[in-house]
Specification:
The complex is a heterodimer.
Chain A: E1 14-18, H1 22-35, E2 39-43, H2 46-56, E3 60-64, H3 72-79, E4 90-94, H4 99-106, E5 112-115, H5 120-132
Helix pairs in contact in A: 1-5, 2-3
Chain B: H1 10-20, H2 29-42, E1 46-52, E2 56-63, E3 69-71, H3 76-80, E4 87-89, H4 102-105, E5 112-120, E6 124-133, H5 141-201, H6 208-238, E7 247-250, H7 251-261, H8 263-268, E8 272-276, E9 285-288, H9 290-306, E10 313-320, E11 324-331, H10 338-341, H11 365-375, E12 379-385, E13 389-397
Parallel strand pairs in B: 8-10
Antiparallel strand pairs in B: 1-2, 1-6, 2-3, 4-5, 5-6, 7-9, 10-11, 11-13, 12-13
Helix pairs in contact in B: 2-5, 5-6, 6-11, 7-9, 9-11
Classes of the chains: A alpha/beta, B alpha+beta.
C-alpha cells in the first residue's frame, strides 16, 4: 500500500522526488541513493510526477515548492485525488524560508519542510527522522 | 433647483478620489480639528470636509451635523468644486439654484454656505472644506483667508494619506523582492554547497592540494549563505517584521550550544573558548527567542575568534544580578582602534583589512545583534582596552518575564 495508515511500522524505502533543477536532482540522487540507500524516482515537474506515481507507488513525496507548471502544493493536491494516495505523506524542500511561507506549507499536512541549501550527507537521516516522527 | 454639472475631468477626478481610498473610512482627529477650527473662525454652527463621488457627497469630518452624506444632486459642494476659489452663497433662499433645495427648505436649513475647493495635483477638485449657517449672512475677508488656509491643510492631510499608501505599497514590493532574491540565490547555493558536501564526504580520494581547494570553496560558499541570510534578516528587522519565537530558554544550554556551533571556527582561528558561569548556577531560565540569542552569541564568539591571537582564550561569561543577566564575550586581541569604535554597530561597517586578517564578514553581524537584543528589550555594548582585550556584552531584563517561573 502506498500509505502507512494506522501507525504500522513500515520502513521508508520508495521516495518520489519532484524537482525542476537538474543539478539539485543529481545531488539529491547521490544523497538519497548512494549515501542513504533509498529507492528513488525523480520527476522534473508535477505533471510528470502524476504520470508515474501510480506505477512507482512511493511511500513518500518529496516536493520542491516553486516549479514551472504545477508547483509543489498543486502537485500534492492533484496526487491526493488519486485513489490510494489520499493520505500520502509529504515533505517539502524549499528555498523559501520566511516563517509565513513555512507555516503555509506545514498547513498542507506536510511531515516537515527541509530548507535549501540542504546537507546531502544528512538529508536521508533528516527524512527518516521526519518519517519516524509521523 | 439647478443641480451642478460634473467637472470637465470627472472621470480622472473620480479615479484620484478612489486612489485616496478614503470614502466611508473612520473619522480622524486631524480632519475633525480642521472643521472645528473652520466653524470657530467663521462663527458658523456647521463645518464639513465633503468629498464628492459619482452619486453623493460624503463627509470625512462633520462638525455640527449628524448626517454623514447627502445625494450629489442636492449638494452645494457639487457647485463649489466647479470654482477655482471660495464658493459663497449668502442667502440660499434668494438663489435660483438653491431656493427650493430640500437641504434649504428642511433640515439642516442651509441658508448660508461658503466652501473652499479641495484640489489635488492642481487639477482634481475632489471636494470642499465648507461652513454652513442657518440664516443668511456674510463672510469677512479674514474668515475667507482662514477658510482657504484651512482647506490647504486638508489638502496636505490628503496628500500625506496618498504618500503613506504609496510607501506601504513600496514596502510590500521590497519584501517581495527580497523574498525573491533570497530564493534565487539559494537555488544555485544549494547546488554548490550540495556538491561540495558530497565531494567532502568522499574526500579520502583527494590529494592534499585538492582538499585545501575544496576547503576554500566550502568556507566561501558557507560565507555566501551567511550573507544571504543576514540580508534577509536585516530587511525583516528594518521593516519591524522580525518574528520572535518567545519561549522559556535555559541560557546556560543556549550558551553551550552557541559555543558548539563555533567549535570548528574557533579551532581554525587557533584559539580556545571557555564558558564561565557564576558559582552554583547550572541553569537559568528566561523568556526569549532561543535561536535569535544563539545568533547573537554566535556572532560575538566568531568575532572574538577572528580577532584573537593564536593560542589565546575566548571567555564567555554569564553574570546574574537582581534585575538582569549579562552575557559577555571576551577576547585577548589587540582591541578596537578608537576611530572604529563609534560606528561598530552600524551596518556595512567593518574594521580595515589590517585589523581583520582572517575570514571577511558581511559587516552586518553586529547591526543584526543590536536589533535582536533590542527586540528583547536588552542593551548591547562593548569595552575595549587597546593592546589588551575587548569585551562585547549584552543584557537581558529579568523583570517583566511573565512566564519566567513555572
Amino acid at each position: 500500500m502506498p500509505n502507512a495508515e494506522g501507525g504500522s511500522v513500515e520502513d521508508l524505502k520508495r521516495i518520489l522526488y519532484v524537482e525542476d533543477q537538474l543539478d539539485i536532482q543529481m545531488i539529491a540522487r547521490v544523497a538519497l541513493e548512494s549515501i542513504s540507500h533509498f529507492e528513488l524516482k525523480i520527476s522534473s515537474g508535477g505533471e510528470e510526477a502524476l504520470q508515474c506515481i501510480e506505477a512507482f507507488s512511493p511511500q513518500l513525496l518529496l516536493l520542491d515548492v516553486m516549479m514551472p507548471g504545477l508547483d509543489g502544493p498543486q502537485t500534492l493536491e492533484q496526487a491526493r485525488k488519486l485513489p490510494g494516495f489520499e493520505n500520502i505523506p509529504v515533505i517539502f524542500m524549499t528555498a523559501k524560508v520566511l516563517p509565513s511561507e513555512i507555516e503555509s506549507l506545514m498547513a498542507l499536512g506536510a511531515l516537515g519542510v527541509i530548507q535549501k541549501p540542504f546537507d546531502p550527507v544528512s538529508l536521508g537521516d533528516e527524512i527518516r527522522a521526519l518519517w519516524d516522527a509521523r | 433647483m439647478i443641480s451642478a454639472k460634473p467637472p470637465k475631468n470627472e472621470a480622472a477626478r473620480l479615479k484620484k478620489l478612489k486612489e485616496l481610498n478614503i470614502m466611508d473610512t473612520l473619522e480622524e482627529q486631524a480632519y475633525d480639528d480642521l472643521t472645528h477650527l473652520a466653524a470657530h473662525i467663521c462663527d458658523a454652527p456647521i463645518a464639513l470636509v465633503s468629498l464628492i463621488d459619482e452619486s453623493r457627497q460624503w463627509f470625512k469630518s462633520h462638525h455640527g451635523l449628524d448626517a454623514t452624506e447627502t445625494p450629489r444632486d442636492l449638494a452645494f459642494c457639487a457647485h463649489a468644486i466647479l470654482q477655482d476659489d471660495l464658493f459663497v452663497i449668502e442667502d440660499a433662499e434668494k438663489d435660483e439654484r438653491f431656493h427650493d433645495n430640500p437641504l434649504v427648505k428642511n433640515e439642516p436649513h442651509v441658508k448660508f454656505y461658503a466652501g473652499a475647493p479641495l484640489v489635488l495635483d492642481g487639477e482634481f477638485y475632489i471636494g470642499t472644506l465648507c461652513v454652513i449657517d442657518h440664516h443668511a449672512r456674510q463672510i469677512n475677508d479674514e474668515q475667507r483667508q482662514a477658510l482657504r488656509a484651512l482647506s490647504r491643510q486638508v489638502i496636505s492631510q490628503l496628500e500625506l494619506r496618498l504618500k503613506v499608501k504609496e510607501l506601504k505599497e513600496l514596502d510590500h514590493a521590497k519584501d517581495e523582492f527580497l523574498s525573491m532574491v533570497s530564493h534565487e540565490l539559494r537555488t544555485p547555493l544549494t547546488s554548490i554547497k550540495g556538491s561540495l558536501a558530497v565531494i567532502n564526504h568522499m574526500s579520502s580520494l583527494l590529494d592534499e592540494q585538492s582538499r585545501s581547494m575544496l576547503d576554500i570553496a566550502t568556507r566561501n560558499s558557507d560565507q555566501l549563505l551567511v550573507i544571504v541570510n543576514d540580508i534577509l534578516d536585516l530587511a525583516k528587522m528594518e521593516a519591524g517584521k522580525l518574528d520572535m519565537d518567545l519561549k522559556k530558554v535555559d541560557l546556560v544550554e543556549m550558551l553551550q550550544q552557541a559555543l558548539r556551533l563555533n567549535d570548528s571556527y574557533i579551532k581554525q582561528c587557533g584559539c580556545r573558548a571557555r564558558l564561565k558561569l557564576p558559582e552554583g548556577v547550572k541553569e537559568l531560565y528566561i523568556v526569549a527567542d532561543k535561536q535569535r540569542l544563539i545568533q547573537v552569541v554566535s556572532n560575538l564568539i566568531s568575532n572574538a575568534a577572528k580577532f584573537s591571537p593564536k593560542d589565546s582564550e575566548i571567555e564567555v561569561l554569564l553574570d546574574v544580578s537582581r534585575n538582569n543577566v549579562r552575557i559577555s564575550v571576551v577576547d585577548y586581541g589587540s582591541g578596537i582602534p578608537e576611530e572604529y569604535q563609534a560606528q561598530l554597530f552600524q551596518k556595512f561597517k567593518q574594521l580595515g583589512k589590517t585589523q581583520n586578517q582572517k575570514l571577511p564578514g558581511t559587516g552586518l553581524g553586529l547591526n543584526i545583534c543590536k536589533h535582536i537584543v533590542e527586540a528583547h528589550h536588552g542593551q548591547i555594548g562593548f569595552e575595549s582596552i587597546p593592546g589588551e582585550k575587548t569585551i562585547f556584552y549584552f543584557t537581558l531584563d529579568l523583570n517583566n518575564q511573565n512566564e519566567n517561573h513555572s
